[in-house]
Amino acid sequence: MDGATDMTTRPFIEVSEVWVPEGDRLVLSKGTYGDLAEFASVSERESFARGEGLPGKAWDEGRPVVLKEFDGSYFKRTEAAKAAGLTAAVAIPVFAGTQLKAVLVTLCSDDDSRMGAIEVWSGEGNMLTLEDGYYGAAKQFEFVSQHVHFQRGQGLPGGVWGANTPLLFRDLGAGYKFVRSESAGRAGLTWGLGLPLPSPTGRPYVLTLLTATGTPLARRFEIWDARAARVGTANEAVLIDGICAREGSLYDHDTERRIKAFQGPIGQVLGTGLPVVDASAAGQHGYRTLVALPIHSSREVTHVVAWYC
Amino acid sequence: MKKLVVIGAGMASGRMLEHLFDADPAAYEVTLFNAEPRGNYNRLMLSPVLSGEKTYEEIVTHDEAWYADHKVTCRFGEKVTGIDRDRKVVIGEKGEVAYDKLVIATGSNPFIIPLPGHDLEGVIAYRDLEDTNRMIDLGAQPDAKAVVIGGGLLGLEAAAGLRLRGVDVTVVHIMGHLMERQLDEAAGYLLRKSLTEKGIKVMCKANSKEILGEDGKVRALLLDDGTELPCDLLVMAVGIRPSTALASEAGLAVGKGVHVDDQMVTSDADILSLGECVEHNGAIFGLVAPLYDQAKVLANTLLGKPDTFVNKEVSTKLKVTGCDLFSAGDFAEGETREDIVFRDPARGVYKRLVLEGNRIVGAVMYGDTADGAWFYSHIKDATDVAEMRDTLIFGPAFQGGGTADPLAAVAALPDDAEICGCNGVCKGTIVDAIKGGAGDLPSLKAQTKASGSCGTCTGLVEQLLELTLGDSYAAPAAQPICACCDLTHEDVRRLIKSKELKSQPAVWQELGWKTPNGCHVCRPAVNFYLLADWPLEYQDDLQSRFVNERKHANIQKDGTFSVMPRMWGGITTPDELRAIADAADKFKVPTVKVTGGQRIDLLGVKGEDLPAIWADLNRAGMVSGHAYSKGLRTVKTCVGTDHCRFGTQDSTGLGIKLEKLLWGSWTPHKVKLGVSGCPRNCAEATCKDVGIVCVDSGYQVGVAGAAGMDVKETERLADATTEEEAIELTTAFIQLYRENAKYLDRPYKWVAKVGLDWVKERVVDDLDSRRALVERFEISQSVYRKDPWADHVENERKRYAPLADLTLEAAE
Amino acid sequence: MSWIDIGSIEDIPLRGARVVKTPRGCIAVFRTGLQEAYAVSDTCPHKGGPLSDGIVHDRKVTCPLHNWVFSLETGQAQGADEGAIETFPLKVDGGRILLDGTSVGNKSAA
């Protein structure tokens, strides 16, 4: 790896990509690669059939997939990933009913200091268990999560499952004392975003992104509610919760923040129904990269969640 | 400074102090007592803190710094033990403090059902941060169980929060369905279903009998049917009672709550009260909106300003993520009432409106609350909904007007789509500039030139800003004239009239201009506004005019000018034509062109030759055609009864009369007229600023047409029976336009802003107003109806020549 | 410097300009105050517009063709436009305008 780089400034998520179906293959629509220009150019030339590679697997199996060992796996860009120092990847398929809209892929790299978590939980019966997750250096937290389960309504993953809506938790370590909190506190994890991932298999999936102040996965989270039940017939979304390292709490009881389709990056997600990754910093409240993900029902985009780094 | 003591630092008193300090920070010296050891925080947001969706720090409304800034003496964690009204002193645990005015804001106490065992360890209410932390701590215990008595707003929020913390929760409610004060049975059923999906157990029609304990600590709740619900914590959320002990001990009038009048004053003139502890006209309060109204009234009363508290309708929202619920008004059933119900079982949606007479009196919604606010406003306004009955339940969208995505069209444009036609700027260039930091219209104009010329594309450019920046960009509501000031054109026009500003220095000074004498944008506008409003007192300033109007000729791209003499009504004579031809020869004019305005243009005249060519044309009896001005340009005519077999009136004659009347006046933007002899409209009068179509019965006067960037047909102003009337209407309209429009707005833009009805009221309907307008126009014309060419030839001639010619000397 | 008297300041309208023909080309003399004036090139570097026909404000002038704004003190274009016009030494003495002859190419020097 690049030993000379200052580890504390490398982002937890190094690469974010949006793959969209074109005909019967997935092609790259947009990606943010930071300084990894070589990996970027390799990716631009790549495409995946259904079931092929990591994005293709997520598409085919209708569920999010975590991959932490590229060598000898179905991962296609292994050489380029190694050269770039990337060691783990998470593929998040975005389905509207049974139709695949896009696959969001995030890639991370291992080191001794970056704490954070990207977890995939799946439900069976009355229990939600960890399918897999990437934890950076938060090994103990990883261990605890592997040995815990949540019921409907319990904790962040269970709460998202029970309400079928994204949730943003503060204070994972200090105030939030359920089961994993002690190890979360030691890992310095502060905020957690949980979102439901609809799957054509019918099985409930929940994605959680947990971030630590020192090595943040993201410095700003936003949850936008776009349901007709909330905004009426207009194609708009209302900010229902958010937190930012600079601005603090984003939710204001008195003033409603509303966005129209195509208005800024969030509006873009709302209008196209596709995830957006952007490194242009325009409309990003002073941050470098933005990833915004839509959550669909079979009828509409119900929510847009965004994380900024 | 008078002394104000406030007992209770809750949301009501907090809001009241905000109003007080905003209005007059020096009115009172404030001492604030709070039994809780902290300042004001948003108590409504305790539930998200309980669930983990917020931290306490995020919900604090007034922190230490705020109290320090407003010099409030804070006595937090100290109880008030008594009020001595004779000595006007408040007695706290740590000492006394005197008051000139006292505000009691002691809030309410949670009601604890006096069941056996209610005083066991582990039985709590849900009121403050301590209760909340107690519940949060329960989550740390593995396999913790809790029972919540009370299936109202507060009890359900407690249950939801506890569940998110991992606790096994059961809600026990005595009534048949949850939240029976705000919901009917159907909505209550859906709410219960949603809570069950979160793993919360709900028991309705369950009556609590006894709280069982072990070693002084709670272990279970016993219901009267024998069921035992084991629990480590029991939360009582069954209601609140106004906290009136302090007030009644002090001898104030107290009923269910502390009695206050419409000004929030108690039975003691120096003691006021607000919040959950008061009773006003028999009502007590549990929701926050009326308390904020009370806070405003009380603050005004303290400042001696008259105000009255009126108890209004409120709506309810449940703060449980994933439960969308809305309730407002009164939805009890009644003989005179009827219901409109909508259900969508697949989506779990239930909506019910209760109507009495033709008005909505109550609304309950579960699952789809998007229209809540709209129904609520109809309840408050007691709107007659008879017309909307059939589609009422579907909300505002069905009452007309769908919504398309306003930004979708611009989003779909490719990067090379041309946005600004005048300067050839495409979408990609603009978006790149925005991403590069040009975050508003002025900076985009400066960097890309987009929107810098005619301004038609401004709307599109603003959409691109919204597209790229999202909601961090908000199109400014009203654009100031330019960077020299903060006022809009409309503001400046109004102020010039109301403050009687009659000179440029008066405007710069009185309206706070940021520059010594304006700029090329605002000075021409201000110059026009001054001469339009004060034609006799203000002298037109040539140096505030764009070069065309200063030199009375149109500047061309190579710095030469175009010269266009008037041809009244498009009628000329052989002598005039000869004079034009001679001038073209003498001054070697490169191009002679016939214009759409029915006259002849001499293009390419050198600046220094202007006075000479004018003098020649003047000698032939011709005057300036004002082809360059913001004034009357032309009156196009077709031949009427003079020659044409279809002519109904003398359109040419009328056109010439109008041109001779109106020429020379300055207007907000150019004015073009047309008079057609019959409805065949050969003069194209129906796309002019004022267009008259002659008919057998008289003259149809139309206004606000356009045939430039926008094409628009005229709208009928009035029908005149005589030529005099047609002229009068036209003159009055133009004067109204001169006195009111924004500089550079053509009449059609101005009429769109003010509305044709407004114009008609002043020009057509009100005869006095019409005559006054005509009179004022004539006063203005007494100054301006003259040939500028002749004026310049006589007075300004030398200014067209160079000041000095140093090339002659060098030749020696 | 060789000062040439080119006329009275009253010959120029306040916030207006007059042109002076010189061996170096046309110069515009702007009167920005009762006894204050500036001399600059009359030709706009953008597309050759006559600056003497532009609106004068404070100590700046706006080109009448495409609204480029120039400082009469430094000759620099303002705002986002890049370019400059030449400035010439000038002083107002007892109501008379004196222009520096050598800078405008005048051979009859003292």
From TrEMBL, chain A:
Q: Which residue numbers delimit the GAF domain? A: 19-106
The source's domain of life comes to Bacteria
Q: What is this protein called?
A: GAF domain-containing protein
Q: Which organism is it from?
A: Pseudooceanicola nitratireducens
TrEMBL record, chain B:
- Nitrite/sulphite reductase 4Fe-4S domain ranges (all copies): 630-767
Amino-acid positions noted as binding [4Fe-4S] cluster in the UniProt annotation, renumbered to this chain:
C638, C644, C678, C682
Domain (BFD-like [2Fe-2S]-binding) spans 419-466, 481-530
Mind listing the GO biological process terms from this record? nitrate assimilation
Q: Where is the NADH-rubredoxin oxidoreductase C-terminal domain?
A: 315-381
Q: Which family does it belong to?
A: Belongs to the nitrite and sulfite reductase 4Fe-4S domain family.
Task: Please identify the protein, giving its name as recorded.
Answer: Assimilatory nitrite reductase (NAD(P)H) large subunit
What species is this protein from?
Answer: Pseudooceanicola nitratireducens
UniProtKB/TrEMBL annotation, chain C:
- Superkingdom to which the source organism belongs: Bacteria
This protein's UniProt keywords: 2Fe-2S, Iron, Iron-sulfur, Metal-binding, Nitrate assimilation, Oxidoreductase
Q: What InterPro entries does the database record attribute to this sequence?
A: Rieske-like_NirD (IPR012748), Rieske_2Fe-2S (IPR017941), Rieske_2Fe-2S_sf (IPR036922)
A GO BP annotation: nitrate assimilation
Kindly list the GO molecular function terms attached to this UniProt entry: 2 iron, 2 sulfur cluster binding; metal ion binding; nitrite reductase [NAD(P)H] activity
Q: Which Pfam family name is an example for this entry?
A: Rieske
Which CDD domains does UniProt cross-reference here? Rieske_NirD_small_Bacillus
**Gene3D superfamilies (UniProt xref):** Rieske [2Fe-2S] iron-sulphur domain (2.102.10.10)
Q: PROSITE patterns from the entry?
A: RIESKE
Q: Does the keyword Protein transport apply?
A: no
Give all residue intervals belonging to the Rieske domain. 3-99
> What does the record list as coiled-coil region(s)?
none
| NCBIfam families cross-referenced by the UniProt entry | nirD_assim_sml (TIGR02378)
Task: State what protein this is by name.
Answer: Nitrite reductase (NADH) small subunit
Task: Say which species the protein is native to.
Answer: Pseudooceanicola nitratireducens
